[in-house]
Structures are given as C-alpha cells and as structure tokens.
Amino acid sequence: MAATAEIAHAPVARLREVTVAYGDHVALDRVRLDLPAGAIVGLIGPNGAGKTTLLRTLLGVMQPLTGSVDVRGAVGYMPQLGEAAWGFPLTVLDVALQGAYRRVGWLRRPSASDRRAALAALERVGMDGLAGRQIGQLSGGQRQRVLLARALMQDATLLLLDEPLSGADAATASAFQDTLRGLRDEGRTVVVSTHDLAWAARHCDLLCLLSGRVVSYGPPADALAPTRLADAYGGELIDVGGVRILAPEGHHAH
Amino acid sequence: MHYLTDPLQFEFMRRALLAIVLTGAVSGVLGSYVVLRGLAFIGDALTHAVFPGIVIAVALGRSILLGALVVGIATALGIATISRNRRVSEDTAIGILFAAMFALGVVLVSTLATYQRDVADLLFGQILSVSQTDLYLAGATTAVALAATVLLNKEFALIGFDRDMAEAMRYPVFVLDLVLLGLITLAIVVSLQTIGNILVLAMLVTPAATARLLTHRLGTMQALSALLGIVAGVVGLYISFWWNVASGGAVVLTSTAIFFAVLIAVELAPRARRRSRLALAG
User: CA B254 to CA B4: how far, in whole Å?
Assistant: First the structure.
C-alpha cells in the first residue's frame, strides 16, 4: 500500500483492518481505506476481487468479521442493473421516489415536495421527459439513469454505485460523468465500481485497486502502475475502454 | 330485474353476497403481490397448510376462521424461515411442509367421522352457510389486511421491485416478507368459507393477473384486481343460485372467463394497447 492518498480533512468513511468472509471464503482481507469528502473514487479489480462486498460492507449490509467501519452521514446506493424486477407496475417517477422512502418514513406517502425533488433528480440525469413511463419500457441505459436518480434522492454524503455503466450507451455515460462531477463539487463522495480501467482513469480522482485486499489506492497514475496492475490482474483480461487486453503475469500470479 | 332482486329476499344470500364481496376485495389486493412476486406456489402451500387448523376448529366447535388463522400464520413463519436456509431449496422445503400439513388434516378428518360433511364444505366452500359471526370475523380480518397493505404498500413495492436496494436502505426485509405472507394468509382465511380451500388460490391469482393486463400502475392494479374479484364473486354467486351449482366453482370459473376475455381483448386491441402489454415481459 505504497500509494495511500494523503487525506487532509476527516474522511467520509474510514475502514481499518476490515476482513469480510462468506463462510470459509475470505472476500476482503484486512482492508484499510479512507474515503475523503468531495471525491470520485473508482473501485477496480478483477472479477471476485471483492468490489461488491466492499460496497455492501460500507452500506452496513455485510458485517465484517474483524476490523472497524466508520461511515459519516447518509449512504446512497445504486445496485447493478440486473437485480430488479423490471416488469413491476411502477413508473419512472415511482422508482425515483423510492430513494426518499427512508426520509418519508413508515406508514406515510411521499409528499408533493418529494415528487418535485424526484422530478428534479430525473431532470439531472435527463430522464424527466419519461417520468410517467412504466420502467420496463425503458432501455438499459435509461434504466441506469433512473437508478442513479433514485440514488440522488437519498441525499447522501457517500454514494455507492455498483457497476453503474456496464453496457451503457454514450448518452448515459455522459449524463453519469456530468452528474458525478456535480456531486463531487457539492462536497459529496462517490464510489464507483467498474471493470473499465480507461473510464476509471479518466473520470476518477482516486482509484482503489482491489484483489481481495487493497493492492493500491491513490491518484490513477499511481494506482495503475504496471507492477500494481500485474499484481491484481496477473494473466487476466483487463477492460480498457471496451477493449480487452491481457495483463502481464505478475509475481503474484500462479 | 327479479333475477337480480329475488335472491336478496333470503337472509343467507344477503350474507353470502357480503362475504363474497369481502373475499373479492381482500384476495384481489393481496393477490397483486402474489402475481407480481411469483408467490403462487407459496400461496397454494398456505391454503393447504391451514387445513388441519380448520379440522381442529370444527372438532372443537370453534370458528374455522380462527383455526385457519393460527395455523396459517405459523406456516407463513415456517416458510419464511425455511426460505432463509440454503441447504434445502425453497420449493422443496415448501412442498414438504405443505404436503405434511395437509396430510395431518386428512388424518385428523379420518378420526372425526361425524364431521366429514362440514370438512367437505370447507374443501369446496359453503358460502350459503355463512353465519353472522363468520361475517363479522371476515369483515374485521379484511379490514386489518387491507389497512396493513395500504400502510406498507410503498415498502412492499420496493422489496418486490428491488430487494437489493431495500436491503441497502436498511429495511427489515425478512420481517416485511413475513408480514406480507401473514397478510396473504389473512386473505386466504377470509376466502376459505366462501370459495373453499382447494379453489382459494384462483381468487389470489386470476383477478390480479387480469388487472395486470390492463394497467402498469401498482395502485390501479390493486384496485382493479379487487373490483374484478368482487364482480366475479357476485356474478358467480348469482350463477350458483339460479343454476344450482357449487358457488366456489362458479365464482372461479367466472373469474377465469373474465381473464380470458380481457386477454383476448388486449391481444386484439390496437397497437398502442399492445405496446403497454409488452411491459409484462420486460
């Protein structure tokens, strides 16, 4: 962990020696990570590196075996596209509103101002024109943007996006980049897990290269140093802007 | 006009109509979740599992609604717990559980020879013997089930649409699933006497499936499903009165006829309508 970022202010999230396991399988091994306020942090690494597990740990859904997780403020989340039941009879506005449900509280309905906020969130991702559509009628990229709008509705200081751009069209990718930059400028922290190293290097302030443990963490140029990449990906295919290349064998590969 | 009004001179028919309206309303609203979340098999399991509760209630001379309610809630709890365990697949576990419960009911019936007629009524429904007490109990149960569904509807919809997100938002997803199964059990219990144990599932599935063909808004679907359940119930009851056929069967067949009529109408409708139907597959 040579390239740990220098954090001036109190971090939004602080992980210390966090180990998470599913039964006998250790998914995250002694992870140490500080997420600063106002940053776009890319979470990269091969399949099974523990990216989703790290997000679930930050959410509090997964309990670490050992170590401590301190998160300051509300956490927002955008799950992977494939998880939801898209045939459900809900409109685009209904789904965006879901992000406000915890604020609305039990036994109550969203108010008119919640609806206005949901429309504003949809407008921010360019989906306000389709607010009345049934969600199943949207394209993949449109669905991704609605899920991002829902995450915005959570009004979180820390936003966790799990593979938000896999298979996204150009309009969706550009809407995401604008929104992410806007969130950072508001002082929020966005963690984006992705397979696309080129996208991550171009749009993230910090990258965390995972492979069951933190291989490197810092500005893209440092985090993606060839030895680090070989360490994490050794011998596997890496996605660079949609082009797959073979990572060189590192000393950690078998 | 006397076709409609004649049956109303009879006290038992007035009670039966009220009971079938309650059945249609509560099954329609909860049935929406049975259809949307693919819970038909669990629903079927619950209807069979309450059978021993009914037999015991009959044997003790207690309200069958009460017997079914107690056993039904216990089974809902069992199913929700088993579905958390990864060692046995969910449908296998449910299959084992509900067959065992139904078998228990069958064994209990065989020890109570004199009650066999009452029990047969419960398997096939005996809406014409609904008592004033039954009606009060069914009314109260329906009110509780509908109120709880309305109050928890946004959480139920979130879990049904995106369970992952509901967990990430730190909702008690397991408890809410349990509550939903409990409410479905209430709907089943209300329908037992009117429709009969074996056909209850149809009231949970058919009106809701019909409503889904006509709308893609959840609230509208639930209201429409309740309306369709009530219409099928009332029409089926009149058919059963005038043609002297089993009421439960008549209601279910009416509901099925409505489903196919709507399905054909939607298939044949102009393009705009067809596009909205594609949402079902999406």
Answer: 17
Residue A238 has pLDDT above 80, yes or no: no
Task: Concatenate the DSSP letters of all residues of B23-67 into one string.
Answer: HHHHHHHHHHHHHHTT-HHHHHHHHHHTHHHHHHHHHHT--HHHH
Domain range list for chain B:
2-281
Q: Tokens representing A22? A: 């599913």
Phi-psi region of A167 (alpha: psi -120 to 50; beta: other; left: phi over 0): left
Q: What is the largest CA-CA distance in chain A?
A: 59
What b/e sequence results for A133-162 when a residue is b if at least 16 CB atoms lie within 10 Å of its CB, and e otherwise? bbbbbbeebbbbbbbbbbbbbbbbbbbbbb
Provide the pLDDT for residue B282: 42
CB contact under 8 A, B152 and A107: yes
Checking if the pLDDT of A29 tops 90, the result is: yes
The three-state secondary structure class of A26 is strand
DSSP state of B170: T
DSSP bridge partners of A192: A42, A161
Nearest CA in chain B to A151: B165
Task: Provide CB contacts within 8 A for B142, sequence distance 6+.
Answer: B22, B25, B26, B186, B190
Q: How far from B17 is each of B5, B10, B22, B231, B233, CA to CA, in Å?
A: 12, 11, 9, 11, 8
Map tokens 């009149």 to a residue: B238
Q: Which residues of A touch B212 (CB under 8 A)?
A: 89
Residue B4 identity: L
The CA-atom distances, in angstroms, between A135 and each of A53, A60, A229, B153 are: 27, 28, 39, 18
CB of B146 within 8 A of CB of B29?
A: yes
How many C-beta atoms lie closer than 10 Å to residue A219's C-beta? Answer: 14
Q: Which CATH class is domain B2-281?
A: mainly alpha
Read off φ and ψ for residue B203, nearest 5 degrees: -70, -25
Q: Please report the ipTM that was assigned to this predicted complex.
A: 0.90
Query: Which residue type does B214 have?
Result: L
Number of residues that make up chain B: 282
Q: Does domain A1-73+190-254 have CATH number 3.40.50.300?
A: yes
CB proximity list for B82: less than 8 A, separation 6 or greater: B88, B90, B93, B94, B97
| CB pair distance less than 8 Å for A98 and B165 | yes
Query: Mean pLDDT by 10-residue block, N- to C-terminus, for chain B (282 residues)?
Result: 83 93 96 95 89 85 81 83 72 84 88 67 78 89 96 97 96 92 91 85 96 96 98 96 91 97 90 55 45
Query: What's the pTM value of the predicted model, to 2 decimals?
Result: 0.90
> Could B162 and A101 be called an inter-chain contact, meaning their C-beta atoms sit closer than 8 Å?
no
Domain parsing of chain A, residue ranges: 1-73+190-254
Residues 6+ apart with CB under 8 A from B11: none
Give how far B227 is from chain A: nearest CA, Å: 18
